[in-house]
Amino acid sequence: LKTPLKQAPTSQLVLTERQPDCQPLTTPPKPKETPPADPWTPTSNLKMLISAASPEIRSREQRRQLSDSSSEVLQTKHCLQEHLLGDEYEKSQPSRKEKSLGLLCHKFLARYPDYPSPSLKSYICLDEVTEELHVERRRIYDIVNVLESLHMVSRLARNRYVWHGRHNLPQTLQALKRVGEENKYIQQIQMIKRREYEHEFDPDGERNEEMASSFGSSEQSEMSFVELPGVEFRAASVNGRKYKSLRVMSQKFVMLFLVSTPQIVSLEVAAKILIGEDQLEDLDKSKFKTKIRRLYDIANVLSSLKLIKKVHVTEERGRKPAFKWTGPEVLPNTQDIKLEATSTTCSPPISESITSKEQCSKALFPSKGKQNFTRHSSLIKLVKSIENDRRKIQSAPTSPVKISASTYLFIIFLLETSFSLFLSQMTAEEMQMKCALSSPEAVPKPETSQQPALSQPLGVCPASHSSMSPVILPHPQSGVSYAIYLHPSQAHTVTTYSPGFMLQPLPCANVTGIKSSNSKILNKITTEEGDTQRGLDEPTKSLAAEERPETKSETSSQRCLKRSQALPESNLIKRRKSDEESLDTSLTFFPSGYLIPLTHCTHGNKAECSTKEKAGVCSLQHTAYSSPITGVIPMPASELKTVNIPAFHITPLNIMLSPNSIAAAPVLSNSCLNSSSTSSAPNPSSSALNFMLQHIGLIPAGVQVPANPVLQHVPVSSQSENISHSSGSTNVQEGKDLLFYSPINENNFLFSLQFLQPKEPQETQAVTENFFRTPGGPNTEPALSASSDGTQRTSQGTLYIPQRKLEVSED
DNA sequence: TCCTCCCGCCAAGCA
DNA sequence: TGCTTGGCGGGAGGA
Reduced to 3 states, what is the DSSP secondary structure of residue A432? Predict the structure, then answer.
């Protein structure tokens, strides 16, 4: 017996079939007709049986519509099963993976162009498709339904659909996003997450009832299919099944991504929301399972469309399947789309700005993804460094101090974000140039108008930058100072300091957080927003901070502030404990910032350190891993475990400044300089510093700013006085250790100086939080506001890293 | 063991 | 009445 040759795995074929340029692929050539069957001998019979078992043969038979022969095939199949051993027969069948809906969808999509010519309508005949793809009709419906939900196809008549491709996608996504917002999906997600969390502690609680009531109380009404003007919806069974249709489910699923930040949706949450809407009373397991099944179906199709990508969200309760939005970013208003839609210069016609960017980007950078980093050698080093550090973290034993690993991830995130921003700037520049060269009208105007601060070519430092004034933040006790490079034109803006802002304990970490307004940035972080507010009663309170000028956390922090102001220093321990309690009951967030350099003067005051080492304080500086290239200090869980510094011990001094006006670097003071200058160890932060300064255009590309005490004797300007005042009332200058820097959005970066302020053994007192901000551009709004008692809050938003550790891993 | 999702039954609805 | 469409859940492959 000859085992039939197994079909080559179709997955690879299909994947290669689907070219990146998304050109329409021709229908695969019809397989050659087989020669007439051999005489009916036992051997030939067997051969025929084997070949008949292959789907290709079967489908061919179907195409020939020989009912008699197909019955023969069935018969022969049956005979085959008898003749062949069970295993061999199974092997002759395509594997489960080869029959997956995702693969089928790939095949399906490969038949049609992404952007079909409007003049040439492509029609889809289901019979043909089922025939050519050798699948059951049922499966095609699954695909078509999802495509219909995105208005990529529309039903024309029985058995007949029209292929629209991606022309309608931007409008559809926009509409879906709007509807999703209207339906308050964010709140629902938050609510579900909160209930999940509560359920952990109250497993016997009447979750379903609560859930049902909460959904019932929301103004959510049963939602129908979101249609687009001009795209007619002609579902076969319109009324009865419409609301359960895969189409509607698919749209809702997409909405969840579009309204979420980050755009990661777990299947569980999606299923609950979808169930919650239509079948409140039947929130049982089987319904849930069914929804999950359908979501997998939808997700497979959306994945084939490259709109989502499967990830895994790891949190305390385990690993959950989730999906991440990888489709085009949906702009908040339709204006941009209309603008883009009028552009006729790109081919295929671009009706979405993101697509136009992608197109131009593709043309500019044929390589994909991170390979773009090859454009900048320092990026390679940095990425390698990140990888190394990441490996260290991953190989470190799991520590109960979860925060440290998460903090590390956060740092890595910020680092990557920073470079993404850098790349995006470069890309924007080059894209414009390239587009201008190829098609002058295609220059994305909105980009330039939106990002004036970034319009300067990177690496080319305007002459005025040479006159930037470093401002020193002295730090006598630790022997560390920080230099802040201020652009003279904007230095005056750093005058908003008020000593009253100074004393700022950290009772609630969202006080110190920053939320990036850039959802793309947030995509990179592995958090689940929403379930972060353990201490808050209402899920809406976990929304962006700007929406709630007065929150519980704020009042609590204000109370703490007053309390701390009233307390003498000897009571700091007490206060810290209360802060700790406050954190325990609410959340532990991490200081946000881009950790550039540690000050390298830990050996500058050995006596102090030896005392502190007993308390496990100083060891952070000694043992923190430092990437030789970047100066990034990852903080592995194991390390922080020994250090034993809870996150709330780190209080940042946050200074929000425009990227074109400020940079920061550590400067060693005399005492520190002496020791550090004798040290042969290279300063790991210098490359990062220079990179950053070049990055934000403060220094020309070739110029290197030494991260050494050259700047330390620069007289403190009036602005810096204000800044150094920030330590006047209390203990800013006693702190040291960390300088954080993070891009907030295109126009703002955040610098935060973090001080670990040892007051007593085992004490790391963090007391200071201060913000300064310069106008970052036309779109920036006041990011900070001072309340009457001197506390400050980020009004722009808060990026909070929840204590609950969440990781997203891609398959 | 659990995740993933194929498979096909069968009912609703249409021509 | 036959066909199309699609909701649904069992159960098996795969990790």
Answer: helix
- Chain B bases near protein CB atoms (7 A cut-off): 3-9, 12-15
What are the domain boundaries of chain A?
Answer: 101-198+242-325
Q: Any atom of strand B under 7 A from CB of A10?
A: no
Q: List Cβ neighbours of A467 (8 Å cut-off, separation of 6 or more).
A: A488
Measured from the Cβ of residue A95, the count of other Cβ atoms closer than 10 Å reads: 14
Q: Whole-number Å distance, CA A305 to C1' B13? A: 30
Q: What is the pLDDT of residues A520-571, one digit of tens each?
A: 333 332 333 323 222 223 322 232 232 232 223 333 333 323 333 333 333 3
The residue assigned the tokens 């009951």 is A585
| Beta carbons of A564 and A767 less than 8 angstroms apart | yes
Alpha carbon distance A172, A166 (integer Å): 10
A11 touches strand C (CB under 7 A): no
CA dihedral sign of residues A392, A393, A398, A401: positive
Q: Three-state SS for A723?
A: helix
Angle made by CA atoms A743, A749, A751, in degrees to the nearest 5: 110
Residues 467-496, chain A, CB closer than 7 Å to nucleic strand C: none
User: Tell me, what's the pLDDT at A93?
Assistant: 66
Nucleotides of strand C under 7 angstroms from a protein beta carbon? 4-11, 13-15
Judge if the beta carbon of A100 is closer than 7 A to nucleic acid strand B: yes
Question: Phi/psi class of residue A321: alpha, beta or left (left: φ > 0; alpha: ψ in -120 to 50)?
Answer: beta
Hey, is A636 helix, strand or coil? coil
Residue A46, token pair as written in the block = 């067997």
CATH, domain range A101-198+242-325: 1.10.10.10
Positions 65-94 in A, CB within 7 angstroms of strand C: 90
- Whether A322 and A266 have beta carbons less than 8 Å apart is answered as yes
